[in-house]
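W.,

You were right to be curious about this one. When I first looked at the sequence I had no strong expectations either way, so I just let the prediction run and decided to look at it fresh. Below is the sequence, 256 residues in total, followed by the output.
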Amino acid sequence: MDQICDDLEAETEALTAVVGHLNEEQWRAPTVAEGWDSHETVLHLGAADWLAHLTLTDPASFAVAQGRMSSGEASLNSMVGPEVRSLLGADLWRWFLKVRTDMIDALRRRDPKDRIAWVGPEIGARSMATGRLVETWTHSHDLADTFGVEYPQTDRLRNIAHIGVITRDFSYVNRGLTPPVDPVRVELTGPMGDIWAWGPEDAAHRVSATAYEFCLVLTRRRPLSDSAVHTQGRLATEWMEIAQPWIEPPRISDMA
């Protein structure tokens, strides 16, 4: 848990470098993710962290909150209250950092294999932390691209790539499709030049790319056709065209 939580803190620092000094006009500027501004992007990240902290520390209250969202009575962003949603950008950022710290502290106290109630099925504590990192990286890229900031490529990408590989079946289920049985070999080149691999070496269906390009396609930030991801075999191409590691109606390019 400490390793993934350390990575999550480092990803938060990378996001700080992008938005930590925005003025209010920039906080309200549209991002490259259509329909979202910077303020709502950080609000969304913070609301999910708030919900994660709630389930980690107060499962009964989480169940009530989850019921309200499932019934359509409330959205995730509305759960944090109007006083948070109305904050100026700089104040919202301070709120986000506090909520993020509280969540990480709660995660560090859990065994990585603890089962945690979450949106949808239960999730392992370590997987929850990794999911928060994936979403942070994804939205941080939206913000960095909006303001022309070069976002760092680090070995933390391995966390994102791993989630992508192990949720291959979910990408099909999410679209009402039956996951194929045949495996896919994934070989990625990390930022330091080392090779990260998943799947049998002799698999007929293969994906190869830099870790960065793979993660951009995985998180729906770059279409496969516009990427440097190379696929071999029908199932590899099919998967990369529909890959999506989060629970949400499938869309080609949208917020996570």
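Here's what jumped out at me. The chain has a mean pLDDT of 93. And, maybe more interesting for your project: Residues 1 and 109 are 8 Å apart (CA to CA).

Coffee later to discuss?

I.
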